[in-house]
Amino acid sequence: MEVGNLPVELWRIILAYLPLPDLGRCCQVCCAWRELILSLDNTRWRQLCLGCPESRHPNWPSQPHLEPPSWREALKQHAIATRTWTQNGPELQSSACLLFLRRRKDRKVWHVGPGCELETLRSALVVAGPYDRVVLHPGVYEEQAEIVMKVPVELVGLGRLGEVALLVCVEQQCPTARLCNLVFMPSWFSTVVYKTSWGHVQFDNCNFEGAQLQVRGPGTCQARFCSFSQGSSVHLLGVVLSLLDSCDFSGSDAASVTLEGPPVSEKNWACKHLTALTRTFSSNRRSGKSNSPPVVKNERLNADGGLHETGVGAVGRGTVIEDCWSEGDGSDREEENPDGGESGKAKTRLNQHYKIPCDNHGLSHLLKRRKDGSLPAGSSPDPTSAAPELLTLQQELDRDPEAQMLAASTLGCVVRRCLFRDGKGGVHLSNYGQARLEGNVFRHLNYAVRCIQNSTIVMLRNEVRECRASGVFLRLSAHGLIAENDIHANGEAGLDIRKGANPIVVKCNKIHSGLRSGVVVLGNGKGSVRSNQIYNNKEAGVYILFSGNPVVSGNHIFRGQAAGIAVNENGRGVITDNLIRENQWGGIDIRRGGDPVLKNNFICYGYSDGVVVGERGRGLIEGNHVYCNKGCGVWVMSSSLPQLLGNYITHNCMYGLAVFCRKDSENVESRGRDGQENLNEEGELFAWESDLDSEDERHSARRSISVALVESNCLNFNGAVGLYVKSSEPLNVFANLINSNRGTGVTVLQSSQLTRLGTNCILNNGCGGVTVEKDCRAELRGNGIYKNGSHGVSFSGNGQIVENDVVGNRGCGIQISSGTDIKVLRNRVQPAQGCGIAVLGPVRAFVQDNLLFQGHPGTKKTLLHMDPGNDGCVLRNNSILLHSSSFSAPSWVLENPPPRPLVSSPCGLSLSQCPSGLGISMTTRISATVENGCHSGSMFCSIL
Fold first, then answer.
1. Which of 17, 33, 56 is the last residue of a domain?
2. What positions does the domain F-box occupy (predicted)?
3. pLDDT of 441-455, one tens digit each?
4. Gyration radius of the chain's alpha carbons
C-alpha cells in the first residue's frame, strides 16, 4: 500500500484511529511511512500522551500551558521512565534474556476490591508473585498495621486519580516495586506511608496527602508526576541516587524534600538506570528562557526620554558646588590680548621663544594617541565604551574544571522540573547531603533551598521567587554550583552565604527585584560569584560583611535601589571585572572595617558617587574605571585608609576624588536596621564574634599603610575639582594625572595634618592647578602644573613648594597670599600672563633658587612680585629669564631635569593597564590618613 495513493490529509485522519503499538509498526514500513507518522505529533501523539493514565502534561506542574517540543518524544521518555523498575534482571546474555522475558510474560494480574477475587491489599500482597500486577478498584483501603512488601509487585489504581486511596504504612523488603495512580494518606499510627532501606521504588502519578515518603540508602526512589500536599514530604537518608521528576510540593510544614547524610558506599541495581535518565534530561535543556545579558550602552535615557550627554560639558551642567573650589575668576586673569607696544607680527615671531614645551613629561604617554589613532582613557573627552561582557555558562565551565565536574555530576538526589509552592521550605540538605536541582520552580515559600553542614548542592536553571526569607541559603561549609537560575522578588537576600559556606561557583544567574540584597556573604562565608546579572534589588546588589570573603567577578550589577556592592563590618572579598552601573547609591560602598580588593571594575552612570569609602573603610582600589556618575567619582571620608592605585576617574558630575571628614551619626539607625535583619534568618541569632579573624591575619597578605594613599590615577574631565581635600589627617597623592576638570585640579580646603602632593601632572583644568587654603598644611614636590585656567599654585597655608614645574597657567605661576611657614624652592615657573611668583600680604616665606621664565611679552606683571612692607619673606638666588630681542635666540626648554613629573610607564604594560603600575618606590612614600571633620558630606553618599 503506497502513501501516495491517497492525500496526506486523509492518511492522517485514518492513522489517528490507530493505537500506540500499530503506530510503532507503521513507522517501520519505510521512510515515507515514518515521515507520515511523525507528522501526527500535534494530533494523535498529543492525544496518546495526554490520555496516558500514568502521567500528566509533560510540562506539569510548573508550566502546563507550554507545549513540549515534541509530544512523541515526551511519550517516548515517559515510556522509558515507567519501565525502570523492571530493569533489575540479569545481564542481557542470550539465555538470561529469554528467562527475563518469560518471567514478564507469565506475570499475573490480581484484582482487589469489593466483589473481586481479593478484597484487601494485604491479602493481595500475600498471594502475588514476583512482578505481578495488583489492580486496585475504586475505594478506600485501610490497614491497621504495617504491611511488608516482600516480592516485587506493581500496584495500580483503576479509574481516575483520586478514586483509589490507601491509608497504609508499607515497608518494602524487596528489590523493586512500582505504584501508580494512587492516593496515599497516613494511617492512624504513623505519618510514614512508604519506606524502604535497600530496594528501588517507583511512583507514577500518585498523590500524597499529609504523608511522608522515606527512603534510606542504599535504597533508591523514582517519583514522577506526583503531588505532595497538606504537609507531605520526602525524606531521604544517605541515598546514593534518587529521582524526583515533575512533582508538585505544596503546603509543607517543614522542608518538602529533606536529604540527610552522605551517600552510602553500597549501590543497588537501579543506580545505573537512574543515572541514564538524569543524563537524558541534562542533554535536553528546557527551552523558552534566555539568560542573554542586556545591551550595555554609554548613554542612558533621562526622564524626558532623551539621551544623557557624555562629554565634560554635559556632566558639569546643573552641578552645584561649594564656592571654595573656584578661587580663580575673571578678575584675576589677564585679557587674552593685553595692550602692548609690539606689533602682532612681532608677537608671533616671539611665540616660539617664550612658550616652553612641556608635553614630554613623565605621564605624557597617558595623553598621546595610540597607533590606531584612538585616545587612551586618560585623555579621551568621551567616556570609555570598553565595558566587560557577560560570559556564558559554557565559557565559565571551560575555564573552571572543578565547576565543570560538578555540572556533569549526578549527586544523591536529582530533583527536576518540580514545583515547590505555598509552604515553609523547598529542599533542605544537611550533614554531607548531596542534591542536584534542575529546572524547578520555587515560589511563595519561607525559603527555597537550605544547604548546611558540608552538604553539596548543584542548582541549574531553577526559578526561585517570592520567598519570605532568603531564596537560597548556604552555611556551615556547604558548597556546590549554582548556575543559570532566575532568583527574584524574595523577602530577604536572593542568595545568602554564611558560616564558612563556599559555593565553588555562583554564575550566570539572574538575581533581581529582591526586597533586600541580591547576594549576601557574611560570617566567614566565601564562594565565587561570577558572570551574574544582579539588578533592581532594594538593597545592595552584593552585600559583604562580618568577614565574608567571596570572589565577585565578571558580574553586571545595575539599577539597584541602594549600592551596587557594599562591604561593611570587616567584610573582605576580591571584586574584579564587574560592570556596576545605574545604582541609586554608591557603585561600591566600603565602611566600618570593610577591606576588599577592587580591581578592573567599570563603575558608571550611577545616580550617586562611584566609590564610597566611609568611616573606617579600607581596601585596595586598583585599575577601576569610574565614570559618568552623578555624584563624585570616589568619595573618601571618616578616618578611612584606602589605597587608590591606577584608577580612571573621569566624566563624573561632581568631584573626581573627594576626601572629606564626616561622622555618620545620622545613619546609625539605618545601619542598625541593615546590620540586624540580614543577619537573623527566621529569628535565629548567631554569635558572629567567634567567626571574626584577627586584625593581624586579615592584613598579613596586604602591604600595610597608616594613611590613605592616592597613586597613579587619572582624574580627568570631572564636573568640578579633580581632587578635593577637606580633611584633618595626612594624605599622600603621588603620580596622578589630573587633567581637564571643570574646576581646580587640586583643592586643599582643610588639612591640619600634612597633605603631600608628589610627582603629579596637573594640567588643562578649568580653574587653577593647585589651591591650598588658609591654615592647611601641604607639600608640593616634583609636580608638573601646566596650562590651567587660573593660577598654577594658589597657596595660603603652611608647607613647601619644592622642585615643581609651573608653566603656561593663565594666572600667576605661584601665588602666596598668607601663611606663617612657607618654603618655595627650586621651582621652574613661567606664567602665561600673570606674575611668576607673587607674595601678597604679610607672609613668612622663604623663596630661593627658583628659575622664572618671562611669560607673554605683552604682560605688565613682574615675574617676581612681593607686596611692600613684607618683612617676613626672604628672596634668595632666584633667576629670571627675559625675552631676547634677537629672533635668533634659542627657544626655552625644560632640561636637566626634563619636564616634571619624572615618572615613566613600567615595562611590559599596555596603555590600557597604565597607570596602575606607576609610582614612587615605597621607601620614598610618607604615609597619610583622613579624619573626621565638619563637612556635611556628599548629598548622595549614604550607608545601606
1. 56
2. 1-48
3. 999 999 999 999 999
4. 38
- C-beta of residue 738 within 8 angstroms of C-beta of residue 655: no
Report yes or no on 839 lying in a domain.
yes
CATH code for the domain in which residue 9 is found? 1.20.1280
Q: What are the tens digits of pLDDT across the range 747-771?
A: 999 888 899 999 999 999 999 999 9
Residue 572 lies in a domain: no
CA distances from 622 to 302, 619, 931 (A): 31, 9, 22
3 state DSSP class of 677: helix
Question: What total number of domains does the chain contain?
Answer: 2
Task: Give residue for cell 557594599.
Answer: 566
The answer to whether residue 179 is domain-embedded is: no
In-domain check, residue 769:
yes
Determine contact, residues 833/856, Cβ cutoff 8 Å.
yes
DSSP track, 508-541: S-EEE--SS-SEEEETT---EEES-EEE--SS-S
Residue 138 CB neighbours (<10 A): 14
User: Cβ(181)–Cβ(154) under 8 Å?
Assistant: no
For residue 221, what are the β-bridge partners?
A: 201
Residue 776: which domain range?
722-881
Extended strands (E) in 452-523? 456-460, 463-465, 472-474, 479-483, 486-488, 495-498, 505-507, 510-512, 519-522
Distance, CA of 238 to CA of 434 (rounded, Å)? 9
Q: What is the CATH number of the domain that holds 876?
A: 2.160.20.10
Last residue of a domain, one of 881, 897, 913: 881
Cell numbers of 56, please?
500528566
The residue written with cell numbers 496516558 in the block is 52
Q: 201-210, 232-241, 341-350, 588-597 — which is least confidently predicted?
A: 341-350
- Closest listed residue to residue 443, CA positions, set 471, 416, 417: 471
CA 930 to chain centre: 30
If you write DSSP's letter for every residue of 788-808 in order, what string do you get? -SS-SEEE-SEEEEES-EEEE
The identity of residue 818, as a single letter, is S
DSSP line for 532-589: -EEE--SS-SEEE-TT---EEES-EEES-SS-SEEE-TT---EEES-EEES-SS-SEE
Nearest residue to 504 (alpha-carbon basis) of 530, 486, 522: 530
Q: Which residues pair with 796 in a beta bridge?
A: none
Q: Judge whether 168 and 141 are in contact, CB under 8 Å.
A: yes
Model confidence band, residue 292 (pLDDT cutoffs 50, 70, 90)? very low
The helix (H) or strand (E) run that includes residue 698 is: helix 695-698
Question: What residue type is 191 in one-letter code?
Answer: T
Query: Is-contact 734 755, C-beta < 8 A?
Result: no
**pLDDT tens digits, 154-206:** 999 998 889 999 999 999 999 999 999 999 999 999 999 999 998 999 999 99
Give strand pairing partners of 292. Answer: none
CA 286 to CA 291: how far, in whole Å?
Answer: 12
775, three cell numbers: 591654615
